[in-house]
Amino acid sequence: MPFCPTDHSEIAPPRIRGRLITLFQLAITLGIALGYFVDLGTQNLEGSASWRVPFAIQIVTSVALAAGCLVLPYRFSSTSTWFCSDYVLRRSVLITHFPISPRWLIYYGRDEEGLAALASMRAGGDRTDVDVVREYGEIRAEIKLEREMAETSWIELVKGTVLKRTLIGVFIQTFQ
């Protein structure tokens, strides 16, 4: 599961990228809360029903999610709705249907394959689509900038004012 937000950030169109990552975390949080409430509601049931009911609910929802992912397309168009539930379902569950990230392909010098993958996801394979060409250029510019700024080391995390930020991040993760 932890790779899904990273995958969403590489595949989703820029205009909805943040919302998809937030939606992913919200879905996890709501699922945990729902699980707690189901357990709370079934804790006083007699016999094995107290654990069988929550287990059955998990199975039903998992099967429904997997079945939906089998029939939903993963292509993203510029007219997709802001929440893109079909995309989240498809890409969060069925790893076998994941296309390779265009950004990853471009990063490793496979530009033509990256452009083809991007066009396939955004415009049905049309490499000359305005949005595809624009996003392809943005990805290349981001990668170029990353490579120019890659001249840092791990020591940078403990120098000057960055040390304070690093420690805050470590403590937040530790005590979460």
TrEMBL record:
Residues 1-176 form the Major facilitator superfamily (MFS) profile domain. It comes from Jimgerdemannia flammicorona. Its main location: membrane. The chain crosses the membrane at residues 20-38, 50-72. Signal peptide: none annotated. The keyword Ligase does not apply. This is Transporter-domain-containing protein. Keywords: Membrane, Transmembrane, Transmembrane helix. SUPFAM superfamilies: MFS general substrate transporter (SSF103473). It is a multi-pass membrane protein. It is found in: Membrane. InterPro entries: MFS_dom (IPR020846), MFS_sugar_transport-like (IPR005828), MFS_Sugar_Transporters (IPR050360), MFS_trans_sf (IPR036259). GO terms for cellular component: membrane. Belongs to the major facilitator superfamily. Sugar transporter (TC 2.A.1.1) family. GO terms for molecular function: carbohydrate:proton symporter activity. Pfam families: Sugar_tr.
